[in-house]
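INTERNAL AUDIT FORM
Audit reference: QA-55
Scope: verify that the stored structure record matches its stored sequence.
Auditor: D.O.
Record contents follow.
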Amino acid sequence: MSDSEFVSIAAEGLSAQIDPLGAQLSVLRDAEGRDLLWDGDPAFWASRAPILFPIVGELRNGSYHVDGASYALPRHGFARRRRFELIEHGAARAVFRLVADAETLAVYPFHFTLDIAFEVVGSGLTVTADIANRGAASMPASIGFHPALRWPLPYGEARAEHKISFAEDEAAPVRRIDSHGLLKPEAVPTPVEGRDLALADSLFEDDALIFDQLSSDTLTYGADGAPQISVGLHGAPYLGVWTKPGAPFICIEPWHGIADPVDSNGDLRRKPGIFEVPPSQARRVTMSWALSAVHSPADRSAES
């Protein structure tokens, strides 16, 4: 990936750069130029904020079947490895498009158009995906966002002070994946205490935390006494939280899809989290970030 190819947008509170390869958000900076997004250091993880499409997670045996035929797809699909066309670019907004072609049809037999729009307003960034079905049959699909934020954020607070605070209590158990990336059948007790998830490397020794019974539609990430990032989930039914233990990033991932269960029969239309897009229609999925002012425990108590 070449930084010279990045497409830049900015507003008074944030600036962003997007790589057309994968329509991947690759740089996110505050008004003072401090980096909020992971830089893709391959010593830990070479990606930054990939778009997951047309599946989220792993397929059992790496394959699926639909409408009488079988196909293979890698974990998280192919969009993150495809070059998108820049179809709109203004000072604060850019839109990228991926259209089905012979290569995608060989592994995903649906005529889609995928538009990813990035827009900065003030100190906020919104990412909107429009998944259109240009074919004659109903199109099963999933999409997910996989952004990696700096851990710690660049405001001087220690890594151990960072946490995720949900808008609502999150008492439901969480899910895990096995060594093959498949969803384990059993749920495990949540590590969230009330509304707060204290971040620690030990949480991720068994890969991602997966929330599949979310009560919250927003959360904040950061350390008390410093600027934090508010994340809007916009109705996402799943949330993944992941890092590689010891890595200086944390992924907070709203998903409209999830990995195959360990006992999946491979039917794409029955894959958990799959939605159907009728012919000549589209599905819109959104996530957003906003950089907030200094936030303290007393502030949250007053809001409760």
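Auditor finding: record pair retrieved intact. The helical segments are 102-105, 297-303.
Action required: none
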